[in-house]
Design goal:
The chain is mainly beta and 1019 residues long. The protein contains 5 helices and 67 strands. The protein folds into 8 domains: 323 residues, Collagenase (Catalytic Domain), CATH 3.40.390; 63 residues, Immunoglobulin-like, CATH 2.60.40; 86 residues, Immunoglobulin-like; 117 residues, Immunoglobulin-like (Sandwich), CATH 2.60.40; 76 residues, Immunoglobulin-like, CATH 2.60.40; 116 residues, Immunoglobulin-like; 78 residues, Immunoglobulins (Immunoglobulin-like, Sandwich); 95 residues, Immunoglobulin-like (Sandwich), CATH 2.60.40.
């Protein structure tokens, strides 16, 4: 399936097709990365190698791909927007040689690659809708720039032995961040091959894979950025290479090859982007209109610096994996800083590989902060100082963290470094080969194990084999060059010593293949010749590693010589050439005089002297690893015709070109039967128009009068394929949901029929816990397009995932397709869509607050409601508004106020919001000396005002002139009339006059003070 749009009107169609064409082909995938720069000299004519530069310098336009739609979308068309937070760990012996700006530029470049923009904009690639940010929140919750720096010799490491050690240096939670380890070199070996006596060994520049486990090792290792990082990010999101070495299998494009249907099958790594090779001829099986060149411009093709694109199918698969296997990366926003301070924490340490007893000095290189908090494994240590030092007295891994802040300790930047303390020795080595073959005396090989241990003075090399060799010390030299005489599965470890201190590497496990030669005889062609003779064309190949010498006998028989009933034919043939290991030998032509006619079976035996009956191998002095493949047989030399394809499954209206070929003869005449749906009946390549299941038979006559027949079986199954996408969802009538959705028919000649049902559910309807949300929607449309948009209202307003099932009436839960469908489809796996409905909310800004009396300020509505139908600010006491139906009125507050509003969406759902506004005075404590409780709304209440320094009014009491207490309130809030005296006593208005008050006030600093005085009540 391609996802290209031919017009703006089809954008919604493309959205749906791309979303549902992406399939998760498996979890726990692992993929090797790009070939490294060190292999350039091995392949000087190839373009697929990685540049030595930090970024790949040149982008070349790739080979054009023939898609089934003629128009392509702009690279700026974006249907999705997923952001992945990344952290870049610079592992180097000089980690500060790479600047922050270079890392920022590399992530920007990665975003261009995934958007098919910038220097990657050429060609026909897809905008994946996936982008990346350097994390702004670190695992401790502090501000970060998403970059760590670790000094270590593991910057140049052996992937097979030291992957765990590298990632143990530093790793952020792989469920929340995409970890990228930038290193200087990787010792590895990929795409190893042995051909005609010559080994080819390539090295990678990075690696990554799709993992759902959340292991600390999950992430990307790279030696370069640019297109290499885009390639590895493709692996991280579940993409495979576009090629499968030596295979063009394309029976099911969603499984075979890279599992992507819009990348043509490819059997070799990518080559030139300007003149791409065409390594497979099975492209049309997956829907290409003709056989096309390999897609060498693709990031997953190994074509190097000229790669610049992902296809729509790859983009869909990555999005699908991101929202399923790696969905936790999207669960939290790590791309926005946790607070507004411009602070960045970082520090250096004095010892990159400490031993027990070493003192490490940590020096802050932070910016923007004035306070420092150091901690070790979460325990605060040291002082408020930019420096800290500690002596570690035991081995282990210790997390040292620096938090930097200004006046607000809750707004801080954080940086952590894992300190790995050992006894002082690090054992390290790497092999120069990872796969060899050996067996004396045929062919022997060796591996050089290069020792690069740190602080060691003595060494032990330990080796074992799966059979016949328990682990034992094989050498104590510094570098081990070991000659292998026998094959097997070996493992090697290195123990490095310095006195009583020692360290041991992980096991390096490798295979030494059996180098014994293995001859294989292939009968390329057998033809009748001069009636009583047979012309045999054959070649000898070597499936082993050791060479096959010349003068090896080959004997021919008229039946299986192992049965004892065969006759030897003519004389024994002897080879004339040496055949190197894993190599095809030269072709030989030999004419056998069998002295009779009608022979239709021939056996040929390699390494057979022809002296045993029945045949028993070996019967020469030449030793092979396998004698089971020494016998070749050819049958049925007669004229034979084959119609192609033997069977085909088509969609209604499709056309198919039939063909007929002949073996062991030349066709003289042809007749197809019947003529129904065929363009011709006496031609070799008629065109069939698919209409129904049918069988076509062809009869062919050879120039020598031989007749043979063959048949083609055509099947035409259902072709319609309905998919649904929920576009939006809003509350309706306070008890229902209004859904906008689109239904498409993926069949290229399909349409949306009237009477197609859509059911909505509150959970996945493929499980038993779902409930139907009535009513069921039924199409009743006059538009006959492939994609149509609809609207529907159904009961239910609970937030969460809402599911829609097309071609289903909701009567059965769980749904069972195709039984629960009215219309037949070719694919029911894409009939269900989901939408996360988030309930509408409203709040007021500012929230509950305090202001100076008679202050005016704007008050705003915060809501996720995109299109409110109406806004109504409710009247209240103590304030006035500049408008009652706008989003942001100006409010003037004269007293404590409860401000309320209501808004309604376009579908009749009502939301409410409110905020409380208290009054504070300009002074520390302000107590009026008179008030007029005449209910005119002004100065009606006698209460205590003050600044924010007041914590609580412990006691506020008022007495009349006879000393009688007429009002008291305890533990009251300042600036709140509800805690004041309204001028009444025992339900009656108090007389005008002078009254005495006492107020005990507690301040925020803990102090307490008594205020007393008089107030005049004026009527």
């Amino acid at each position: 399936m391609t996802c290209y749009c031919s017009s703006v009107a089809k954008l919604k169609i493309c959205f749906i097709l791309c979303l549902y064409s992406a399939e998760l082909t498996g979890q726990g995938l692992s993929a090797k990365g790009f070939i490294s720069s060190s292999d350039i000299e091995k392949y000087p004519s190839s373009d697929f190698l990685v540049s030595n530069q930090f970024f790949s310098p040149n982008i070349l336009e790739g080979g054009k791909k023939l898609f089934r739609e003629s128009s392509k979308p702009s690279a700026q068309t974006l249907f999705f927007n997923y952001t992945i937070p990344v952290v870049v760990h610079i592992i180097s012996q000089n980690p500060y040689a790479i600047t922050d700006q270079q890392i920022i530029d590399s992530i920007n470049d990665l975003n261009d690659a995934f958007a098919h923009a910038g220097r990657y904009a050429g060609g026909t690639g897809a905008n994946t809708g996936i982008n990346f940010c350097l994390a702004k929140i670190d695992p401790d919750g502090g501000i970060t720039n998403g970059i760590t720096r670790t000094e270590s010799v593991l910057s140049d490491f052996d992937q097979d032995i030291e992957n765990d050690a590298l990632k143990n240096l530093v790793s952020w939670d792989t469920k929340q961040y995409c970890n990228i380890w930038y290193v200087q070199g990787i010792k590895s070996e990929i795409l190893t091959s042995f051909s005609c006596g010559v080994w080819t060994r390539l090295h990678e520049g990075g690696y990554a894979g799709l993992s759902s486990g959340g292991d600390y090792r999950d992430g990307i290792v790279t030696t370069e950025f640019g297109y290499l990082l885009a390639h590895e990010m493709g692996h991280y999101l579940g993409l495979l290479h576009t090629f499968v070495i030596g295979s063009c299998t394309n029976t099911d494009c969603s499984v075979d090859g890279d599992g992507i249907c819009d990348t043509p099958p490819q059997s070799v790594p990518g080559g030139s982007c300007t003149n791409p090779q065409n390594s497979c001829s099975t492209d049309t099986v997956s829907g290409f209109s003709m056989d096309v060149p390999d897609l060498n411009s693709n990031f997953m093709s190994y074509s190097g610096s000229c790669t610049n694109e992902f296809t729509e199918g790859q983009a869909g698969k990555m999005r699908n994996n991101l929202t399923t296997v790696r969905s936790s990366l999207l669960a939290q926003s790590k791309c926005d800083p946790p607070c507004g301070e411009n602070i960045l924490a970082s520090f250096t340490r004095s010892n990159w590989s400490p031993a027990i007893g070493d003192n490490i000095i940590f020096n802050s290189t932070s910016t923007g902060g004035t306070n420092y908090q150091w901690s070790v494994d979460g325990v605060v240590v040291g002082t408020n100082s930019p420096g800290y030092n500690q002596t570690f007295t035991q081995t282990g891994k210790f997390k040292v963290t620096l938090k930097v802040f200004n006046t607000n300790p809750d707004c801080y930047a954080a940086y952590s470094d894992d300190i790995i303390v050992n006894c002082g020795v690090m054992a390290r080595f790497y092999p120069d080969k990872r796969e060899i073959a050996s067996r004396a005396p045929f062919y022997v090989d060796s591996i050089l194990f290069t020792n690069r241990s740190v602080n060691a003075t003595a060494y032990q090399w330990l080796m074992s084999k799966d059979t016949g060799m328990n682990e034992q010390v094989v050498s104590t030299v510094f570098n081990l060059n070991y000659i292998f005489l026998t094959p097997g599965n070996y493992s090697v470890r290195l123990i490095a010593f310095n006195g009583s201190c020692s360290d041991t590497t992980e096991k390096f496990m490798f295979t030494v293949h059996d180098a014994t030669p293995d001859g294989y005889l292939n009968l390329a062609d057998v033809e009748c010749f001069d009636q009583t003779k047979i012309k045999v064309t054959f070649d000898v190949s070597n499936l082993g590693y050791g060479p096959i010498p010349p003068n090896i006998p080959i004997t021919f028989y008229d039946a299986d010589p192992r049965s004892g009933n065969a006759n030897k034919l003519d004389t024994t043939f002897f080879t004339r050439d040496t055949v190197q290991g894993k190599c095809y030998g030269r072709a030989y032509v030999y004419t056998l005089d069998i002295r009779k006619t009608g022979l239709n079976q021939l056996y040929a035996v390699f390494n057979d002297s022809g002296t045993t009956n029945p045949l028993v191998l070996p019967n020469t002095k030449f030793v092979e690893s396998n004698y089971l493949n020494n016998v070749a047989v050819a049958n049925n030399f007669q004229f034979k015709v084959t119609a192609a394809p033997p069977t085909a499954t088509l969609e209604p209206g499709d056309t198919l070109q039939l063909s007929v070929t002949a073996e062991h003869g030349i066709i003289a005449s042809i007749l197809w039967s019947t003529s129904e749906d065929l363009s011709c009946t006496d031609c070799a390549n008629p065109i069939l128009i698919a209409n129904k299941d049918i069988t076509k038979k062809v009869m062919a006559t050879s120039q020598l009068g031989c007749i043979d027949s063959s048949s083609v079986l055509i099947k035409v199954p259902p072709a319609d394929d309905y998919v649904i996408m929920i576009d939006s969802m809003q509350c309706a009538n306070n008890d229902s949901l209004h859904a906008n959705f689109t239904i498409c028919n993926n069949f290229k000649r399909g349409k949306i029929p009237t009477g197609l049902e859509v059911s909505f559910f509150d959970a996945d309807p493929l499980s038993s816990g779902a409930h139907l949300l009535n009513p069921v929607f039924v199409t009743n449309n006059t538009d006959t397009g492939k994609c149509i948009s609809f609207a529907h209202i159904f009961k239910g307003i609970t937030a969460g995932k809402i599911f829609a099932a097309v071609n289903n009436d909701g009567s059965q839960i769980p749904i069972l397709f195709p039984e629960d469908s009215l219309f037949l489809e070719k694919d029911y796996s894409n009939n269900i869509s989901s939408f996360f409905y988030q309930q509408d909310t409203v709040s007021l800004q500012p929230g509950d607050t305090s202001v100076i009396k008679d202050a005016s300020f704007p008050i705003h509505i915060n809501t996720n409601l995109s299109n409110p139908g109406s806004i109504n600010w409710l009247p209240g006491d103590g304030y006035s508004l500049s408008c009652t139906n706008c989003l942001s009125p100006v409010i003037t507050v004269s007293a404590f106020s409860l401000v309320q509003m209501q808004m309604e969406n376009q579908f009749g759902c009502v939301l409410s919001g409110e905020t409380k506004i208290k009054i504070v005075s300009g002074g520390k404590v302000s107590i009026p000396n008179a008030f007029t409780p005449n209910h005119d709304g002004h100065n009606d209440i006698f209460y205590i005002l003050g600044s924010r320094e007041i914590s609580v009014i412990k006691d506020f009491s008022i007495f009349n002139r006879w000393g009688q207490k007429i009002f008291q309130v305890l533990n009251a809030a300042p600036n709140d009339p509800s805690f004041g005296w309204d001028g009444s006593f025992n339900g009656q208005e108090a007389e005008p006059g002078t009254y005495v008050y006492f107020a005990t006030i507690i301040f925020t600093n803990g102090s307490e003070q008594v205020y007393k005085g008089t107030v005049t009540l004026i009527r």
